[in-house]
Design goal:
single chain; 4 helices; 80% helix; membrane
């Protein structure tokens, strides 16, 4: 199981992003879009700069929080 964490590369993140964005077609109300967007950000960063797996997961967490905050702002603007 730890090998799964150590050997994640940019293509794994981009494939996960694609999967989550396709799951959004099942009407998951934006949450899979947030996670897929964050995974895409991690894959894009890894394309330009190789980073270790702890930083990958930390970047994923930060990107999810930022995208979730943006999603909340957009939903609040749409409801007004």
């Amino acid at each position: 199981m730890p090998d799964l964490l150590y050997h994640v590369n940019q293509w794994h993140w981009l494939a996960f992003a694609l999967f989550m964005l396709l799951m959004e077609l099942c009407r998951l109300k934006g949450w899979s879009f947030v996670v897929g967007g964050a995974a895409f950000v991690v894959g894009l960063v890894m394309h330009f700069e190789p980073i270790t797996w702890p930083f990958q997961w930390a970047l994923m967490l930060v990107a999810v929080m930022i995208l979730a905050f943006i999603r909340a702002i957009v939903l609040k603007m749409k409801s007004q």
